[in-house]
Specification:
Blueprint (H helix, E strand, L loop, with lengths): L1 H15 L3 H8 L15 H28 L5 H5 L6 E6 L4 E4 L1 H7 L3 H4 L14 H13 L3 E8 L5 E12 L3 E10 L2
Antiparallel strand pairs: 1-2, 1-5, 3-4, 4-5
Length: about 180
């Protein structure tokens, strides 16, 4: 099961790099391998899950508004299909933050207002490795989707490890980057 999810995450990153027509062609050939669903054990879990899903759906809708505005050719649905995230950071091509979701504020302690117009590197600090900084920079220059774990810092200076998936968003060329982030430690 873990391997299947891992393969699906890799597939999602690949599909997100295709234009919508190519992605739809491939997605129609994919059959989900998870067919068993467990019964609901309690309404409290269902309600909490519903709130999380609703917030995530609103975040995805916000990204779709940006996608329409900037005429991105990425398949936004494919990007979000099976990628877990807590925070979303949207930057322009120069890596200046244009928008973050509430999950970003919850994860980092920084307000949306504070983050806007800054580069995500403001989250880095003493324990952020030089290697991961170089790897991020190199991958951004390649303009291809990638995944990396980095040590960032919350507003209260507490370090945390974050898994970041970065997707270049493009119309005729890359115009923006979107990072889906999950705290792993």
């Amino acid at each position: 099961m873990k391997q299947e999810l891992s393969n699906m995450m890799g597939l999602d990153i690949y599909l997100s790099s295709l234009d919508r027509k190519e992605s739809d062609k491939i997605r129609n050939q994919i059959k989900p391998s998870i067919t068993e669903f467990k019964p609901l054990l309690g309404w409290d879990v269902s309600i909490i899950s519903s709130f999380d899903v609703t917030k995530k759906e609103l975040d995805i809708q916000k990204i779709k508004v940006f996608a329409e505005k900037y005429k991105w050719k990425n398949d936004i649905d494919a990007i979000f299909l099976n990628n877990h995230f807590e925070a979303i950071v949207l930057t322009d091509s120069l890596e200046k933050i244009l928008w973050v979701n509430e999950g970003f504020t919850k994860m980092t302690g920084y307000s949306k207002k504070f983050a806007i117009n800054k580069q995500p590197s403001f989250l880095q600090g003493e324990l952020t490795s030089k290697e991961s900084r170089k790897e991020v920079k190199m991958n951004l220059q390649k303009r291809k989707p990638f995944k990396i774990s980095v040590v960032n810092y919350k507003k209260d200076k507490t370090p945390y490890t974050c898994q970041v998936q970065i997707f270049p968003l493009y119309s005729n060329q890359v115009t923006h980057f979107m990072a889906l982030e999950t705290q792993i430690r």
